[in-house]
UniProtKB/TrEMBL annotation:
Subcellular location per the Swiss-Prot or TrEMBL entry: Secreted
Record Gene3D superfamilies: alpha/beta hydrolase
Species: Potamilus streckersoni
UniProt protein name: Carboxylic ester hydrolase
GO cellular component labels: extracellular space; plasma membrane
Active site: S224 (acyl-ester intermediate), E352 (charge relay system), H473 (charge relay system)
Annotated keywords: Disulfide bond, Glycoprotein, Hydrolase, Secreted, Serine esterase
Transmembrane segments: none
Family annotation (PANTHER family): ACETYLCHOLINESTERASE, ACETYLCHOLINESTERASE 1
InterPro entries: AB_hydrolase_fold (IPR029058), AChE-related_enzymes (IPR050654), AChE_tetra (IPR014788), CarbesteraseB (IPR002018), Carboxylesterase_B_AS (IPR019826), Carboxylesterase_B_CS (IPR019819), Cholinesterase (IPR000997)
PROSITE patterns linked to this entry: CARBOXYLESTERASE_B_1 (PS00122), CARBOXYLESTERASE_B_2 (PS00941)
A Pfam family matched in the record: COesterase
Family: Belongs to the type-B carboxylesterase/lipase family.
Gene Ontology MF, one: acetylcholinesterase activity
Amino acid sequence: MDRNSLVFRLLATVLGLLYTAFFVTGYDPIVDTDKGKVRGLRISANNKRINVFYGIPYAKAPLGEYRFRHPQPNDPWEGVYNATKRPYSCVQGLDGVFPNFTGAQVWNPNTKRDEDCLYLNVWVPQENYPITNKAVMIWIFGGGFYSGTSTLDIYDAKYLAAENDVIVVSMQYRVGALGYLALFHRDAPGNAGMFDQVMALDWVQSNIHYFGGNPHNVTLFGESAGAVSVGMHLLSPKSRSKFNRAILQSGAPHAAWAVIPEKEAKRRARALARELKCDFPSTEEVIACLREVPADNFYDYEYNDNVIEYGVVRFPFVPVVDGSFLIESPEKSLNSGNFKKCPILLGNNVNEASFWLVYFNKNLFRYNAETLISRHQFEVLMDTLFDYHPYYPKRLNSFGIEAIKFQYTYWQDPYNQEMNRYNIDMAVGDFHFICPTVDFALHYASNGSPVYYYVFDHRSSVHLWHEWMGVLHADEINFIFGEPLNKSFDYNHHEKKLSHKMMKYWSNFAKTGDPNRGPGEFSVNEWPLYSNSSRRYLRLNDQHLRRGDKTVDTGVGPRIQECAFWKHYLPDLVVKTADMSEMEREWKVQFHEWSTKYIVEWRSQFEHFIRNQEKRQTCGGGP
């Protein structure tokens, strides 16, 4: 047999194997999986062919005795499973704070809410050959662990997959009490939602090769609670081996809102049980009762004051340190270097807190009108927003509160209402999102892992929220998933280019671990490595596109001074003032108020007097 004939036969054999694994009947692609065949849809994105599979089951429905438990493997099925409709969303409440505002309503589930929700979606590009061994990106949605669904239009991965030749997978996972209620009992161990994610990662490892994906080239990416989830998978021994790289958008696993200890988790679970008339002496009785409660009843009570005290960026049921998924606190794992060593890409948006502030106090922070904050309102808000600091076992003392006010006062003009609003936005955003993300990056850089940091500072031309809110939490998602390429929206030409560029960065990183280059390409070194010494990050905006040059914008930081305050100064201050007598503490706070607040008022009055004197002299007046 000559060489050409041998090559031809080998090629025919390979194509035959591919055909049996992934073939088309009419216009419907059908793929083998380890549980049975699935039928998807053939669609196009920007005139590029793509196969999409909606709602492939990856675990048993968590109903009846499986409620609160970790997920169980799915049973095989006969025939061909119809994966052509978006799956159910997991049970959750709806956002009714701004019922007629599209900017808020786009985050509500767009499919039926049901406990039977453990499904995933797969987008497979069909334009480029080979159709095997493609890089895989797994999206984990956000929503504070109390809401969210992979089916949102904003998470439609067809453009990301088609334009960048990557396979994208997204999964549903349980949220709220049904996903995170923890009684540390075999029937309600906690972290069910995290184990849902782990089982979805297992599914990818076992099945993605049937779709042409490479199980050894998998990147997790997520935003907010999704970024926290990605970070926890980097820490967890249960999931470290199931992926290769990670992208964290506006979130880190040791953020104050992201995880709670066992004692607090049990308290919240018992408090919710009392609200639902399931207050029994034994844990077994409580769980048995809660299993009988209609699923929709849970979210009606999750935010009751007895369950969780009202505050900004506080969520009632979140991951816990359970000794299994999380063997220790994320902070401890990071400090000891107990995490997966791999390349990471991460960052934040400029105004991370403005979205949360309009929900915290919609009468003061208005989503559709200018918002100005007086000095008095600034002080009251700071007392309210930071009266509780989850890093410490008890509330911040008065020194801590005053220190935060001092750090975030615009001392050039403390009565500037616009700056007061801006600095409240910055304080909340720094504490809950930006500084934990920066700290996570520094831990990784210290351990020698390649780190790429970004700050997204582009305000969309089609933005629906008021201009004062700036570049909001989650604003980058539209560009990562290619929404500007959708002709239904009126994004401008530069924004379409920005979206292309961001998708390219993300997919390059998924393929090679370097956002600057794809496979076989030379690195253009646009995006610098982030290190403890340089702190250089990439600014993601359309300014260089408007200039028409290839010089991207970079920065140093971000928020170096502010993050040092939260990580070092404030904790030290609280510890060193903890043993003061109440009388001494009160005297020192009063002195501090005199040296700041009243001196500021005196200065303001003096400057007002000087301005009046100048006006009188200009007009020829005088004593």
